[in-house]
Predict the 3D structure of the following.
Amino acid sequence: MLKEFFQFYTSPSSRLARKMGFLHEAIAMSARHQRCQSTWQPHFEQCQAAIRQAVAECTSFRHIVVLGAGSLNDIPLSFLSQTFDSVTLVDMVFLKPARRQAAEYDNVTLLDADVSGCLEKVEQGDSAAEPPSLPGIEPEKVDCVVSLNLATQLPLIPVRWLMDRFGLSEDKADAFGKALIQAHLTYLNRFGGVKCLIADREMREYDRSGRLTDQLDPAWDVPLPAYELAWDWEVIPFGESSENAARCQTNRVGVSIWSSSVGGV
């Protein structure tokens, strides 16, 4: 706990990242990764392979953008740096290990930004969703854009904030969550190059006997593009959950890669 406390007060981050809980979440995920390395590493390697597969479909290699870059653990950064003229990694929070890793490459830029495009309004109680406009990124000049384990996570903190602080009803929260994911898909389709969506497609919980105890759609019932590659990621092994140590959570992660403006979206 002392390490996490120290990280919170020494990590560079925006006012909104601290206030709304994004920094806390990033630190908690980093700590969980340390505890769950053996079950998370295969997922990271699959993500890296999927990004390489998307890059193989590019016809030019000027600029790649990774949305939801976070820890950088699931990104083949050296490969991207060698392949593209410019690499932009985007997220609300980059902890110091990620910043040190990115600094090793002259053509890699970290962009601390609100990928949802609506957090300043959400802070004030507004539940309107629209595609973001990220500084320094011109979608028509990007040869590959990757949405990395991000799409289904986008609603979680904003929806909780609005429900806790402004009493947003469950029906309106559900509608806002759906709108955030749909706005993200709309944003991806604004990019002129190859699009790669790596996202949870199903969440399943099991008890120690192997019995399925819960199952849900992490995309809030928003249709995502059909996936061509998928794997299971044991996100929360037995003993990891503070709420119920006798359960584990496994996510089905799917990869969609497309180039046209439709792409099943």
Observations:
- The first strand starts at residue 63 and ends at 67.
- The chain has a mean pLDDT of 92.
- The chain has nine helices and eight strands.
